[in-house]
Amino acid sequence: MSDARSTSRWLPWHAIVVFGFLYLPIVTLIVYSFNGSGVGGFPPHNLTLDWYRMLFADDAIWESVVNSLVVAFAAMAISLMFGIPAALALDRANFPGKALFRRLVLLPLILPGIITGLSLLMLFREADVKLSLVTIVLGHGTALISVATTEVFAGLQKLDRAQEEASLDLGANYWQTLWRITIPNLRLSIVGAALLIFTLSMDEIAVSFFLIGRDNTLPLEIWGRLRRGITPEINAISSIIFVFSLIAIVSWYRLRMTAEGTPEITAEVVETAQGL
Amino acid sequence: MFSRAYRAAITLPPVLWVAVFLLVPYALLFCYSFWSVSPSQTIVHTWTLDNYRELFRVNVYLQTLFRSMWIAARVMIFSLLLGYPLAYYLSFYAGARKDLFYQLVIIPLWVSYLVRAYAWKTILGSDGVLNTLLQYVHLTKHPLEFLLYSPFAVVLTLTHIYTPFAFLPIYAALEHIPRNLVEASHDLGASPLQTFWRVIFPLSIPGVLAGATFAFVLSLGDFLAPLLLGGPSGIMISNIVVSLFGAAYNWPLGAAISLCMLLLVLALLLLSEKLEKKWSFR
Prior knowledge:
The structure holds two protein chains of two kinds. By secondary structure, chain A is mainly alpha-helical. Chain A contains 13 helices and no strands.
């Protein structure tokens, strides 16, 4: 394919432009988190750590960080608790309404968050449930079942069925087989899904926007401040979030590389979502 | 191979959860769109078509819906224009750096949506990074005002956010093309351009459709980027819904608009599914 010289000449340049476009805001964000004279203004000057100091003394932010962590862990538990069986059911059970169930489970993956958010808002209103972090957990948990289901379903497709059959033939019952053979074989998919769900929940804003009670999650706290004006403190917290996201994604990537041996990952979620 | 009890145990919990937290809420969305609000601001549970009449009577709703579709269409086109050649480059020419580049594309996907939209705001503002840079190098004397609080800012930001979404399925489709097909095309005397248009591109169409659907649908329903960067001329349909659910307090009308949006999205998903099947050679 090396004879495609005419096309291959501009392609690298195009790639550089796209990467520049993708990373420009992230780099700007980080650079200006150290800028003494605030956000904006070129060139940056008066490098300082003041915004970070201010951030660390800002109780409201840290309270929202704790809220977000709690929500993310709880949402992760719900999504896995229902997403793993959902993937198993789609893989190996036939029941009336299966096609509808499959579409419903995956819908939040592709639907704009606002629709999921306000539909749940109506549910909670009709059921007289007071909005709080709990309603956000239910919202995230429900929306992210789609991620758990697609990841685990993809894992199931690669599972060696002979192991399960052997386990059953050797006298283990279904539950023993599930706990000792199926789940352990799926552990990489499950951990990968957990990491993805955790990160998505930490960042989620469209659904939370409608289900928020008195306590803010971190994205909503940031959102509230943005409405009042921009300060480099937001750059500082965003840079910290970026570092943590980076750690999450690199570990997720490594994990999937050991699981699959190929770099083709998120695409798989997308593909499974389509193919399901 | 599996017993009834086993199948029931893996099926019932998720089915029940999904019924309560997805099926019922969507059904409620449907019901609300036929209900109304009383002057004392309570929901009246009697059936009426008033919300839909209102929707077609007041121009601003349909106008905003069309503007949102136009913004989403531009985001889709730009994401494909940025994402497709990148995916093609990675899949066919990047060689050993493929892995690194792939990671570089998906990293921004994990960076908070809000944070990235905010970053664009700090870049595009009238005393933002770009305007002060332009004045610093004496390219402009006054800040360019169209950069922020305009549909331009919304399209730019959403394109930034959805380019990786468009890239991923295209890349997956390109990676699945058997390389011997491409070699055969070369060996039979096709030029690289012919090979691209007659072999590679047709085989990548399902990926393009998936990427296009993602970019269009997700940006169509966005309300945060327009609120943050759109200004009055960049308002999108979801912003109207948000205000109807907030200060304006007219949930039924908001539900009617959302339901239209939901039906539009579902129609697009079905259409793209149909087209994908048609173009799928696997």
